[in-house]
Every structure is written in structure tokens, then in C-alpha cells.
Amino acid sequence: MSDLDKEIAALVKTCVEGHRLSQERLYKMFYAEMWRTCIRYVKTDDLAREALNTAFLKVFQHMSTYDVKKGSLNAWMATIMIRTCIDLSRKECRFETTTWQGELPAEDAFVAPEILDKLYAQDLIKLIRLLPHATQMVFNLSVIDGYSHKEIAERLEIGEATSRWHLSEGKKQLRALLLKHTKSKTIHTENKTEKK
Q: Which of the chain's termini has less CB crowding within 10 Å, N or C?
């Protein structure tokens, strides 16, 4: 067991006992990672903050249920963050209903490497947040967090076909946003070069 694992185990134990300083230390230790999870699932930073704080409260209230044998603490916490974001966003989230059960057309998910080279993680998160809310949630659950369409359907209370449609639509829209974003950055860079 590494020193970090030992520290986390000790923090979990003292958090279960209700020690505020341990809770504060754990919050600071996982804040950045959990914040990145929340901003992928909600549309605004204010909602992300609300989700983050609500989820951390749940983490501390249910810390005694955490089982190290079932997975890492950060994975357990991320699951709580995602569920909290989904609950918080459910009113805003409107899912298209579809009865079509066939396979979606295979779309080429290719994005040119030169486009991706110009992107920062923050740029990508901003673009994902521009997707319609329901599509954004399905995209995140599938592509970023690795949930199956069956799991997404259960979690969001939608059909698997609806989940597939949102994922396909999300990829298509994100590709268009990436191209548009890259063109605007290229034009901006060219204008700066011309002014020099």
C-alpha cells in the first residue's frame, strides 16, 4: 500500500467518525478531479458548484458505506458526483423519444489530428457543454465515463435506442463544433500575424 493509499484510508476512517479537518483535507484532495466531473455534466459553473457541494455532502454522509474492495475512493466519489449532476439536471434535460430499433448509421468519428493538436482540455469541455443538455449527458456517460447504453438507459430512465441516438447526434454536433472552433482560432491567429 502506497503512502497516498494509507493517507486516504486514514482520512476515510476519520471522516466516518465525523472529523471536520479530515473532511476538509479529503475535499481539497479530490476537489479538482470532482470539479472536472461536474462541469462535464451541467451547463453552468454555478450548477457545477451546486452539484459538487451537494455531492460532497452525500460523500461525507455515506462514507461509512464505502468499500475499498469494490473500487477506488475517487471512482466511488465520481459516481456520486455524476448521479448528483443527473438529479440536478433532470428538469432541464429533455430527451427525444424514438421508437426506432434499427442500427444507427455508422458515422466516421474521424477528426483530423491537426484540429486536436490545437485544442486544450478546457476548449473541449466548453464545446461539449454547447451540446443540447440531454445529448451532453449521454455523450459524457458513454464516451468519457464508459457506461453502456443499457446502463445509460437505466440511469436516465430512457430507452436504449434514445441513448444511441443522443450519442450519434452528440458525435455529429461535436465534430461540427470542433471544425468551427478550429477555423475561428486559425482566423484569429492569422489576423494577429498580419497585424505584426
A: C
Does 136 map to a domain? yes
pTM: 0.70
Separation of alpha carbons 52 and 65, rounded Å: 19
Residue 73, C-beta contacts closer than 8 angstroms, at least 6 positions apart: 8, 12, 30, 66
Given 73, 89, 105, the domain boundary residue is 89
Long-range contacts of 23-27 (CB under 8 A, 24+ apart): 23/60, 27/56
Per-residue pLDDT tens digits for 103-128: 444 444 444 455 445 556 677 788 88
Measured in whole angstroms, the distance separating CA 89 from the mean position of its chain's CA atoms is: 13
- Kindly state whether residues 22 and 59 are assigned to the same domain: yes
- In the numeric block, which cell numbers belong to residue 59? 460523500
Per-residue pLDDT tens digits for 50-70:
999 999 999 999 999 999 888
Asked, for residue 94, whether it belongs to a domain, the answer is no
CA 111 – CA 158 distance, rounded (Å): 29
Among the listed residues 140, 127, 103, 104, the one whose alpha carbon sits nearest the alpha carbon of residue 179: 127
Q: What percent of the chain has pLDDT over 70?
A: 78
Torsion of CA 171, 174, 180, 186, to 10 degrees: -100
Domain count along the chain = 2
Say yes or no: 118 and 184 in one domain. yes
Residue 56's domain comprises: 3-89
Burial letters 169-183, b for 16+ CB under 10 A, else e: bbbebbbebbeebbe
